[in-house]
Structures are given as structure tokens and as C-alpha cells.
Design a protein that fits this description.
Blueprint: E1 2-7, E2 13-21, E3 24-33, H1 41-59, E4 63-67, H2 76-95, E5 100-103, H3 105-112, H4 120-130, H5 140-162
Helix pairs in contact: 1-2, 3-5, 4-5
């Protein structure tokens, strides 16, 4: 199964594709959509949408795992920006006919690290371990996207084991 994980963000949206073969997981792709900050908001959102559509067309994943909106009372602007990026990503997935699953950040950390309160560094290191990479992804957006894809794989495997 091929899963594309997407970590939405207005300044940088991470994309990571993971495929499993048996019980092994392989990184097929990782990149970040980072439109220039100087672009007007509508153009930045259009760039994220177009990037999403291009990745979906190129990779043809069976499923797309997108991070749910996370908001912190102290950072409402960040939540609004993420929501805008998330909206165009979800719309692009719908336009491409992609099957979408959504996970909360704590759920992803629990699945990948074993602790819902894990740090970003711990998540990146465990992503490298699960994917048998020589080092953790340096780009945090891509590490988070790969973690989302792994979480979807792990959840799917558990559901299949219960059948």
C-alpha cells in the first residue's frame, strides 16, 4: 500500500510518501511546498494546491494522511494559516479523487514513537528508524509528513490484524 502523508502549513507544507512491502516500510518521496513569503496569499494557496495535485498525479497513492488542525490558544494566527493551507490541500485531494484519512498530531506521535507527547526530534529519529534511513530527515515538514504516512500504515495494519 502506498500512503502520502501531508503536513499542512502556509510557509511550508511537507509531503512524504511511504510504501510497505510485507512488514517493511520504504520512503518513496519527501519534499516541501514552500511558496515565497512575498507572494499574495491567494497565490501562495494556489501554489500549495497545484503542488498537491502534481504530487498526487505523480505518486498515485492509495490513501492520503493529512494532519488535523492543531491550535494553541497562544498562537491563533498559526492555526488560521494552517487551516487555509489545509483547506486547499483537502480540496486538491477531493479534486483528484484521493481517499483521505486525518490524524491528530498526538495520534501520529503515539503511533510512530509510542508517546503522544514526543518531541519533533524524537519523531524524526523514529521515522528514520521505521524507514531504515541512515539519518533522520533534516526538514521537519518532511519528517512530519513521513510520520503521518507511517501512522496511516500502522493504523491500517492493526485494523487488518483484527479481522
Amino acid at each position: 500500500m502506498r500512503v502520502l502523508g501531508i503536513d499542512p502549513g502556509l510557509t511550508g507544507s511537507g509531503f512524504g510518501c511511504v510504501e510497505n512491502r510485507g512488514r517493511a516500510y520504504y520512503k518513496l518521496y519527501a519534499d516541501t511546498a514552500a511558496p515565497p513569503a512575498g507572494l499574495p496569499l491567494p497565490e501562495r494557496l494556489a501554489a500549495i494546491r497545484n503542488f498537491t495535485l502534481e504530487v498526487l498525479e505523480a505518486l498515485k497513492p492509495e490513501s492520503v494522511a493529512v494532519e488535523m488542525l492543531f491550535s494553541h490558544a497562544g498562537h491563533p494566527k498559526t492555526a488560521l494559516q494552517m487551516a487555509q493551507a489545509r483547506g486547499v490541500i483537502l480540496e486538491a485531494c477531493a479534486a483528484a479523487g484521493a481517499s483521505v484519512v486525518e490524524y491528530a498530531p498526538r495520534r501520529v506521535k503515539q503511533a510512530v514513537v509510542g508517546a503522544g507527547g514526543a518531541s519533533k526530534d524524537q519523531v524524526a529519529r523514529m521515522v528514520a528508524r521505521h524507514l531504515n534511513l541512515k539519518e533522520a530527515p533534516a526538514n521537519q515538514h518532511e519528517a512530519d509528513a513521513l510520520a503521518l504516512a507511517l501512522c496511516a500504515h500502522f493504523v491500517s495494519a492493526r485494523q487488518n490484524d483484527k479481522r
